[in-house]
Amino acid sequence: MKIYYDINDFEQVPHAVVTIGTFDGVHRGHQEILRNMVNRAKEIGGESVVVTFYPHPRQVLSHDSGIRFISTQEEKIAHLEALGIDNLIIIKFTKEFAAIPSEDFIKDYLVKNIQPAVLIIGYDHHFGKGRTGDFGMLYELGSQYHFKVEKIQEQDVDNVAVSSTKIRHYLENGDIKHANMLLGYEYSYIGKVVHGQQVGHKMGYPTANIEVAEEFQLIEKQGVYATFAEIGGRSYPAMTYIGKRPTMEDNRPQSIETHIISFDGTLYDKEIKIRFVDFVRDDKKFDNFEALKRQIGIDEQIIINILNK
Question: What is the DSSP secondary structure assignment for residue 127, as one 8-state letter?
């Protein structure tokens, strides 16, 4: 996959099949659009071209400091490449860019630089200043500039409409199963293992304390999760804790700690990927460390049973 960080650098291809969007999470709805693009490009002897934006528009236009996203830029690129996309154009999103009228964006960016043969969009796609651009406008512009516009209908999974907003809601509420169902893969973090207080080690359950690499990554509900840990290309069953360790009463900030089951080794400063499979229980304060240790043993067995399925 060729990646362009300036649309003016794009090397035009014949019969370009294009889509536009932020694609946070590259979920199953996005995947349907992208697979249609790849297949359509093959049908007409062309290439697929994805136009996306960085930073995410909400980071530029919203004053809400609590914005969190499903996927990092690197993960999004990896998903797009795995789906067989030929070309990726990443436009730097600024307030000045956001002020460009919808028609000018199509004329001065897409038509001028890409010359699309086909533009494929999702059922609810809006774009341009004030999100005034829609399917009707694109259809008219397609007639004017000689490209076809095709719309992909809303995607349902088990009668649930797929959207990034819905997936974020599931993750924030610990509903990992439904989030993963709509994503089409297991939600994950990538981070570095940093030094902790060795409390888990003292209880017989050593944990890797994880510093998540992406500042704006969405962190799920506090509690205990069944997970897999990927280290150096290998996957291990693991239980992951997200919380503030209330039993310790040390007023520390929220931490992410993973106990890798049946693993023996040093992980400090290594990169680790945690894939979330299911939510096990809420975070809670225990009367003492012995009670906490007993519960961790119960959690571990529950998690082993989940992951063995």
Answer: B
